[in-house]
Specification:
four-stranded antiparallel β-sheet, Glutaredoxin, 239 residues, 7 helices, alpha+beta, five-stranded mixed β-sheet, Nuclear Transport Factor 2, Chain: A, 2 domains, 11 strands
Length: 239
């Protein structure tokens, strides 16, 4: 009896899901015919609005109709709940598992007891990064993992190399970012810098600074010390 009940439930589920899969296939086919050949549609899914579908291409979110004829790019807002559904979706897609960060490719700065943790991707020539470092100096009891992320040209690569190869990476970094003391020339294995760029491309780190908290959430830009404290308090690492 249980077997027949299970089969009936499975049949119902397949009957219910079939139209949805068929509709997604139609959208994929029609959009693929009109979009550049290099464009890969990663996902098509329903939205809370009847007849409107989300189309994900990498970390880019678009919206389309049931036939994939019209394509819209922008934010989908839930005015009743006061939520930006597009922003929430992108944040979820770009979340990084903190435990899977390649911490061996970063250097560590510990302040106070170092109990709280965050990671930052920064370019040494980024003005916003320098502003953020001044703010971060006011945050105590934190362990900061700095990933050098030279994306602003050859001089950024050179400075990143000199900082990464320094005997005291944290001090050399701080001296440059907060006191404009040019890092002395140094040489060593800098493959970590290339791996950082590859990691950033994979996880859509498109600007500096980008801060990643213990719960995987991220904050782009030079946020204030108060905002860092707020995010650290709410971010709890997964068990």
């Amino acid at each position: 009896m249980h077997i027949w009940k299970t089969l009936a439930l499975l049949s119902f589920a397949m009957f219910t899901l079939a139209p949805a899969f068929a509709q997604e296939a139609v959208i994929r086919k029609n959009l693929s015919e009109k979009m550049p050949p290099s464009t890969k549609i990663d996902e098509v899914s329903k939205t809370p609005i009847s007849g409107l579908y989300e189309v994900r291409v990498g970390f880019d979110i678009f919206y389309t109709d049931e036939q994939g004829r019209y394509l819209l790019r922008g934010s989908l807002l839930d005015t009743q709940a006061r939520r930006n559904l597009t922003e929430e979706r992108i944040e979820k897609l770009s979340a990084v598992d903190f435990d899977k960060l390649p911490l061996g490719d970063a250097f560590k700065i510990v302040r106070g007891d170092g109990a709280r943790k965050l990671a930052i991707f920064e370019d040494p020539n980024c003005g916003y990064c320098k502003r953020f470092e001044l703010e971060l100096a006011n945050v105590n009891n934190v362990t900061v993992y700095v990933f050098l992320y030279p994306v602003l040209g050859q001089d950024s690569t050179t400075k990143s190399r000199n900082i990464w190869c320094a005997a005291d990476k944290a001090k050399t970094w701080s001296d440059w970012m907060t006191r404009s003391t040019t890092p002395p020339q140094a040489d060593c294995d800098t493959n970590a810098l290339q791996r950082n760029r590859e990691f950033g491309q994979k996880y859509n780190i498109t600007g500096t600074p980008t801060v990643i908290f213990a719960d995987g959430s991220r904050a782009p830009g030079a946020i204030s010390a108060q905002e860092v404290e707020k995010r650290l308090a709410s971010a709890k690492a997964p068990p």
